[in-house]
What does this fold into?
Amino acid sequence: MSESKKLKKKGGLENSLVFKYGVYFIFLLMFIAFSFSNKNFLTLSNIGVLIQQSAPLMLGVIGMTFVMMDGGIDISAGSNMYISAAVCALLITKWRAQGVEIESFGIYLAIFAIAALVGAVIGVINGVMIAKYKMVPFIMTLIMTKIARGIGMYITNAKLIIINNQGFTLSDKRLFGISILIYIAVVFILIFHFILRYSRYGIQLKAQGNNHEAAQKMGFNTLRNTFVAYIICGALCGLAGVMAAGATGSVASAFAEGNEFIIIPAAVLGGISLFGGKGNILPGAIIGMLLMNTVTNGLTMMGATPYVYTIVRGAIIFLAVMVDSMNYKGELR
Amino acid sequence: MTNYALSLKDIRKGFFGVEVLHGINLAFENGKVHGLVGENGAGKSTMMNVIGGVFKPESGTMEIHGKPYEPSNPKDATKARIAFIHQELNLFSNLSIAENLYIDNLPKMKIGAIDYKAMKTNAAVQLKKFGIDEDPATIVGNLPMGVRQTIEIAKALIADAEVILFDEPTTSLSQKEKERLFDNIRMLKENNVAVVFISHILDDVCALCDDISVLRDGNLIDTRKTSEITKDELISMMVGRKLERVFPTVEKDIGDTLLEVTDLVAQPVVKGVNLTVRRGEIVGVFGLMGAGRTEFVRALYGVDPITSGRIVLDGKPYPKPSPMESIERGMAYITEDRRGEGLLMPKSVSDNIIMVNLNGICNKAGAMDFKKEDAQTDQIISELKVKVNDKHMQTAANLSGGNQQKLVIGKWLLREPRLLIMDEPTRGVDVGAKYEIYVLIQTLAKSGSGVIFVSSEMEELIGVCDRIVVVREGRVAGELQKNEFDQKKIMYYALEVNQK
Amino acid sequence: MASTTKNGKLRASKVQKLIANNAILFIWLLFFVVSLITIKGFASLYNIKSYLVNCAVLLIAAIGLTFPTLNGGIDFSMTSVIDLVSTISAYIMVLTSLKGSVWAIPVAIVVSLAIGAAVGAINGLAVSRLKMPSFVATLSTMMIISGIAVWFGNRHYEKVSLSGLPDGFTVLNGKGALWFLPVVIAAGIFLYCHWLLTRTLFGRRIYSVGVNPRTSEISGIPVKKVVFSLSLISGVMASMAGILYTAKNGAGIVTLGDDMFINFVGSVVIGGTSPMGGSGGVKQTLYGVLFVMLISNILNLLGVNYTMYDVVKGVFILLAAGLELVTRRMNEKAAVLASKEAG
It folds into this structure.
């Protein structure tokens, strides 16, 4: 009998599936609790709001998928969003002062491009240090978090910058009743899902996340692939930042603080392993992000105080990674 | 002049001013299997790395069908239609068979996207050609070694390889898988591929190859037609001397039972092993790779979990083995992977030697006695003649293979173990150091310790052991006393379950 | 002659090693001396005293972080332990019936240590038994514990901080006649931990596990227990630092530890303990602490915008980590070379 048939019979994968579904079962319980505590939770309009609120970070989780697929991590996602949004906010203020009409397609496009550029620069620095100089990803991106936020606060003098009264808002722009944020997110989801699954780069990234030596022996440019992953993540986080700023209307010095700790557990929940080589964007990362945001939304509907969010998110991260680690056979650190 | 698929002319390679390959001349013909034998350290891996574009030779040339071949990286070798099947397979366990086969050769759709459907169909065709009954969507991580190796071969052919080099391919294979490998190699012959077969299992080499070359200490000793040479001649060429004086002998008494293992089962490989070891006895454990020898001793020592079975050590039952308790009970385990599991490579020689006896040199409060440590490490260094100048400054990584192995063995000696388990203790060790290790084993046995000597080198087992146990497919297939030692008998046990 | 050149070579590398191991100290000395001469206000007794006290309290936390780092791990939860310890200890001493009693301070301290130990134990179990990577396990405990601290503060504090701590406690604040108390405590902890790492069985086991856990396991070291204890130690050290930081600020502060992590990790990494594990120690961390606090002091006296502090520290950490990587690579290459020569 072939090995694959033997496996199907034995159901050798069942163990982890049971636990995985166990995690989702907890979510089910949470949703039931949410629906009971606030009857507006399950309404269509709330679900619409939920999906809309997920849109910016959806780009973040897409970017994180690439980095995690390679076995790395990017803890600077939140600060990346912040500094990109801050730069854009400063530019908007400057341009408006010069009499430029902000509320135009061309300017909006330019703002997005700049946000992606700033994010990409952060990604380049991360990528060079990690890919070329072999720095440990979580230490490098941890340092980058501090540096990026510090620079961001420096250039803004840690002041709040309001942009929706200067002509830059995304929250009110709709097409056929659906927010433009959702359209943007969908476009990026499709583009990057395609890249991850259907491009040579994507399959090489998945391969090298699993077996770095074999990938190198086969002549894959693992350095370049890692480098590109961090650039993708950086650029997408930059875009996520400007999307989030466009949605909320302002950029404060604590903007997007801790967002990496929403994005990363969202990815893990969506089946993207911290250890590399596993997962996909559609449906995995998307579902993971929606789950995380549903929790946020539900908690808001329950009128939860701020600290509850961090506690619940902490617990989710713990559980999700606990399951992810079950099959881990490497060293304990 | 025959047009060779690949030829090496006077290849010389050195590292840090030391020459390792001294002018290698080899030629591989299409449609023939060329065997390459040699001890560890003979230069086989270096030569493969030169062919594979990992190393650049100092001098000499390589040619493919008469045209110069000068690879500067592994990709060049692949482009030149040369493929390697190493022991560590270049497969991705998280991808499917189809994805692994075509990852270097992705079928694309018109818009440039990977065509997974075409990949699957093509893969199914390839699998059929090689007689593999697997769904191409199966994730490789779920497949056994033999199937994975065949997939690697298929991958090489898909890349249109004209020269395929196999590096010790049978070590992880079951007998059935080995037969399938040989069938595949014969098929490669028929397809005009030039096959290079590197192995230390002379039976395989002689059965499969048309020509055999012998490498020794970086020199190509000779290339002969298989039909015109005997195994004994091959061995003589490999070792450079006749086999008579290789092994030390010692007078000793064999005492009463030290270890009794009954029906030891450790899933998934060990299916039921019985073993006894007496004081002063050296019991050899032979088996081909995958037989379960290493898995057995690891379960016995407590590194891997036991499913069922009974262990009695020194008359006392030992229900749940663990490394800590095994050490307490007087066991020692010298692993086959000295770099990964036997040594702390970046740590000093002294640190490595004292490792197992750390609590032997500290007082009740846990404070270390450095004087004791110095005395004990010096003692081991002189006893085993470890070549080291400064035991504190030099790290384990600074030593040669033989000296590294002495470190591994030496650290265990500080605990004066009553039962030593040694797994491939002379692998990667030069001939001189090998002899010293045999002497050491004999000395330990003479002082009353029992030794379990796991090895895939039949010759050393025959030369050193009092008794040889042959393991096959997770069970004991046969046992021979010293006066019954016979290479053919041992091999027969290793390949067949029942003698009769 | 071959042997003398070999000995000569080894002697040279011994000096090289001495310089390399204490490089940070020399650099710190340089910065210190230059600051004494050039920076206004640096050389005052007040500044030096407060510098030493800052170093002392940071040292305790940084020593704690050193332990998981020696195994290639990290502990993000230390800042939240400091939060919770500060919040609860102040509560015990000021808002419970223990206020004014002779038991207030000891109970507060014991409870604080228990908190640190509990968090450390949870982290330790997550890493050693659940096989979770330490950075994510301690991240989640950090989020949960800091959330609990905020919840507690919300419930029991009127404002974000709670002052009015008893004198017996604030005597540890590093000011006044007994300013040296935190320094003495830190020195004691430092000496004990240094002894632990360099002269005990436990210390040797830690380094062994950090270098190669598989070899360590086979050699009879209880790897899981060792890994567990590393998290336990960082948790307890965090609580001790939390007590002293609270005393220093004279109040229980719910968010006390929140911005401190960069100082902890900076001290460990700049000091020279490798984030990959297996090398380094509390001596190196001491150097790192001296350096990081000096940078903070200098930036402060120079009037640099506080937003840039983290940037400057971040750059130094990057340099230090990069340097460590480069020297590690060089050592590996040298080892290969030497093994060829040794034959």
About this structure: The interface with chain C takes residues 73, 129, 133-136, 138-140, 142-144, 146-147, 149-151, 153-154, 158, 261, 264, 274, 305-311, 313-315, 317-318, 321-322, 325-326, 328, 331-333 of chain A (CB under 8 Å).
